[in-house]
Amino acid sequence: MNVSDYIQQIRSHLVQTHTDVAAWFEEDDDIRAYRPKDQGWTINEILEHIALTSHFLLILIGKGVKKALRNSQNSDLGLAMDQFENRLDQMAEIGRHKAFSWIRPDHMEPKGEKSQAEVKEELTGQLERYLNYLDQLKNGEGLLYKMTMSVNDLGKINVYEYIYFLSLHAERHIRQMEENKREFLGVNTP
Prior knowledge:
mainly alpha
């Protein structure tokens, strides 16, 4: 896979995931407010958590984008692209709910301080930022800077992978919201 296809794969995943997340705002209030039997988060809280996590990690991604673009002035982008290894499939586990233990920082815990309309607007703005970053890094520059991701021992990941991580994070929580809805409706889980 070349870098253009790689970036397009990430872009497509982002758009689809955010479309799927946005659909949850259209669910009945009772479903979105339902607290599951395990006392986990409601769908409203999950949506807020997705927005909070993206908010804080987008700060790091923004810095990574700047550093990658700066590095492109002094680095051999052609060499980086020749050595490029597509690891997106290896990251798939991030998108699976309950696939591994995940301890989030306190500042990413939902607190119910924003309306659902505000959370939805924030998620829409975040998608625009992701896509803008991919546009800025359209020539492969995102390969030129790596950041550490401790979740599931991912280690050093490039800027594209960091963006993809957030899309997978949202996908993970879509599965959680689906579980909540099934439980609310009394439908057995698959």
